[in-house]
Description:
Chain A is an alpha/beta fold. Chain A is built from eight helices and 15 strands. In chain A, helix 3 packs parallel to helix 7 and helix 7 packs parallel to helix 8. The longest helix of chain A has 15 residues, at 175-189. The termini of chain A are far apart.
Amino acid sequence: MENRSEKRKVLSFRNGEAWEEERAVVRETPLTIYVNDQELITLLTIGDANRELAVGFLLSEGFLKNRDGLVSIRVDDAAGEVHVQISGDLSSVEKLWGKRTVTSGCGKGATFYHVLDSLQARPATSGVAVSASQIHALMGELNRMSELYRETGGVHNCALGNTERILIFRDDIGRHNAVDKIRGACFLEDIPPEDKVLLTTGRISSEMTVKTAKMGVSVLISRSAPTSLALDLAGRVGLTVVGYVRGGGMTVYTGKERITD
Amino acid sequence: MENRSEKRKVLSFRNGEAWEEERAVVRETPLTIYVNDQELITLLTIGDANRELAVGFLLSEGFLKNRDGLVSIRVDDAAGEVHVQISGDLSSVEKLWGKRTVTSGCGKGATFYHVLDSLQARPATSGVAVSASQIHALMGELNRMSELYRETGGVHNCALGNTERILIFRDDIGRHNAVDKIRGACFLEDIPPEDKVLLTTGRISSEMTVKTAKMGVSVLISRSAPTSLALDLAGRVGLTVVGYVRGGGMTVYTGKERITD
């Protein structure tokens, strides 16, 4: 694996004392995605899972629909490039892509106004049920796995789990990249996400809701707060949103029927 | 002012008990910016300072250079639209805009590869000096002003201050919007940011560094962690980055000469 952190010489202050020391900071590096030889976008990432991130991003943004659509991927970690060949006509996606939404809550280029339609075509219908104590156990596991966060304080953590344990753990500078890595991992390793739950340390903005619903996951769990629009969208597509999982408590905002005592 | 939060009926769990109650969530709403009658972008925001946000965004992204460039602004809060007329030729900016970077660490459409040039044309040269105890006092003031965060947990706070006190405080779902609101406020109210410090509750990604440097501010202070690329860029342009201002301590990563005991 690539180095995910770097040491920097810093000047530390505490209680009127100042001293020099080394501190670890999280690595941030550009990754440019090319689709059918055309430069699409540059993401800023830790750089540790470029294949997954590129595939997950292309799935999230509608460039890639299924396994048949993926002709080839070539990853050049040293250059910070992923070259993806996909089948089919790109023109309709490119049109949408021109009209991007940049979200405030940690943005990715979602085509916001077209998102509702595509979401409603895929409501969250999974019958997965998870209990409050299972949610606490999963969030505890997520926090224990967060080594890079403990080292650098610079990442969000995200995981896909069943009701018993975490199956895929990913982290990144942005919580959206972490989700896309998970989506890419599911795709590349043929793991169906539909009967799983998604856990994140980050806030739940509308974009997080959209990403989760598009992935086909019905339960989104966070240690942080959701926004009004995230909950409106979640309500519309039947997604369960659980926030503030911390300190022995949690708040179920939508889709309460999936949460048992 | 617009409503910045909404009440939602939730199901709360704690220590094996479950009960229904109301919880406040932060408002998230789309704001579409039109430039010279052309739709440019949709931001997701609290929606409380749309004029400032639009102007700040256009300044950050290079569409707007100075006061002479701004012909008119019309804000339609109900429709979630800001219509801006600017003078001059947009074609070169539009070209850059086509090649966007979406940052992982809370993205906004920065044209990453062109950013370095523009930054190096404007190094942070201000002689502002600030002491560790002044930084602690400013961060304490920032935290005390964070009403919406205390109510909803859903925003990042940002402020422009001199060494003695906070002059402009703004919050938003995303920390980049909060910075753009401050930049817009400085522009609209004719407040020079160059001799001030910028405070944020959010992490310092490369994009945060770029926004700060482009604004002409030389000292960026956060309660959270920076990334490697943020520090590389800060080092190159001579920006002071102070992180982890919390619990009586702080870490100075770059530009140490501006921080006094």
